[in-house]
Amino acid sequence: MLNVKMLKRLKLKNKKAFYNFVFLEKYIAGLKLLGHEVKSIKNNNANLNNSFCKVLKKEIFLFNFHIKQLSTFNIKNKNSTDRKRKILLLLKKKEIRKISEAVKKFSLNIIPEKIFLNKKGLIKLVIHLAKSKNKYEKRELIKKKEVFYYSFSLAV
């Protein structure tokens, strides 16, 4: 039985991704994790900032995904204590082929956006095929936000 509080509590987002990239296509992937990593993620002890995905040998991996260790975790097994290890994304073969072709052909990036729990309680990752923004696009976005907030504060 899935706890409703657990669904609402899990909020891991890559906040810089919206600022640095234009998202084109969205995919939902499963993650191949170890037991203590699942516990840490469900307790919001993880960080998606500066993480990225790569296609290696017909598989997609997540890099720089920082998972904090549990205080109750036994440190005897040194292989599993690597907190920034590459994590396999679980996608269908057609999706992997489509993503890898788009990355090679159009030089796009695979950017993780957020992590959530589905109705069954499994941890899922939302990834996007994305194109990086130029500096002038970022400046325009900042100007629009400032104008909106300034006009909103005058109306109130």
Summary keywords:
single chain; 156 residues; alpha+beta; seven-stranded antiparallel sheet; 5 helices; 35% helix
Total helices: the number is: 5
Largest sheet geometry: 7 strands, antiparallel
Compressed to H and E, one letter per element, the order equals HEHEHEEEEEHEEH
Q: Percent of residues in beta strands?
A: 25-35%
* Average pLDDT for all residues: 85
Write up what this structure looks like.
This protein is globular. The protein has helices at 4-9, 15-20, 35-42, 93-106, 135-155, and strands at 12-13, 21-31, 46-47, 52-56, 59-63, 66-67, 87-90, 109-117, 123-132. It has 5 helices and 9 strands. The relative contact order is 0.23. It is α+β, with helices and mostly antiparallel strands. The strands form 2 sheets. It has a 7-stranded antiparallel β-sheet. It has a two-stranded antiparallel ribbon with strand order 3-6.
